[in-house]
Amino acid sequence: MSKDNKIRVLVVDDSPSVRARIRRILSKDSEIEVAGEALDGKMAVELSKALTPDIIIMDVEMPVMDGFQSITQIMAENPVPILVLTSESSADTAFKCISAGALEVITKSNIAAEPKTLIKKIKLLSKVKVISHIRGTYSRSAAQMRPNASNGKKIIAIASSTGGPKALSIIIPGLPDDFPCPVVIAQHMSDGFITGLVSWLDAIVQMDMKIAENKEVLRPSVVYFAPSEYNMEISDGGVVNLTKRLPNEIYHPSCDKLLISAASTYGNGVVGVILSGMGDDGVKGIKAIKERGGSTIAQNMETSVVFGMNAEAVKSGFVDKVLPVTEICKEMILFAH
Questions:
Q1: Catalytic annotation on 281?
Q2: How far is CA 312 from CA 125, 254, 283, 319, 322, in A?
Q3: Which of 96, 123, 205, 270 is deepest in the core (most CB within 10 A)?
Q4: Domain end position, chosen among 125, 156, 173
């Protein structure tokens, strides 16, 4: 952050009108200043070194060097918090940027409708101490294990936020296509991007992937994501209940509501996993799972983009194991035996 304590932002977009719109939005907050603008990814790489911004707002589809290539180079050479700004039609490409180290994705239509969202994201993400993006693959030995069918009801419930999509891209591919439990995930996400996240992960995951639908019954060997516009809870019989999120909910969908409902329905047949993210959403859920006899795992600090809500879960004393992201899949498979 600069000496006058303002958050210095580098805006990267090939559209002059988009850059002007972002500048107008940011100029309304006295704690933020635009340190510079780049017309393409190559210029973004150069200016990130010259200006040392606190955060970069990065478009995806640009000439000379696209967002993915630019983010890959920046995160390898001079890591900076990066917020990807794109259209919903570019969602798949946007999640490639997440895999390269970007922190989060937001739509251009979203900031046009709710400009305060952009300011809020910048203030949160600029505080993240980023490192070169997480590298690692799932354990082949774990992926090749074939779990036995469970006699009782079992489920994996995952709380995930900033840095979570990258963690999920390391964890979920290790689960075999005949995994005997359903996996349910609440991933904090801007509206319109859960579909892109599921599509991106589906290309690298063995299990079936889908966005949960209201009143559907959970099936083994399927990964279910809560829609960002709704909170997901699981009731008796493994039935999905979707409820509209409240207007004042900062993080959505709710991790706590998903994990608490899983604890209530499955008792000691739950493994609760809390991944990288800001705030403390999911901590009450981890507590509920532990109190009902379930097992709990938190992603460790070293492999987290943000050691926030997982750190709070560890502090609560209700986490059984604190593991690097590359070890979580193995624990999930052992649980399913």
A1: yes
A2: 18, 16, 7, 10, 12
A3: 270
A4: 125
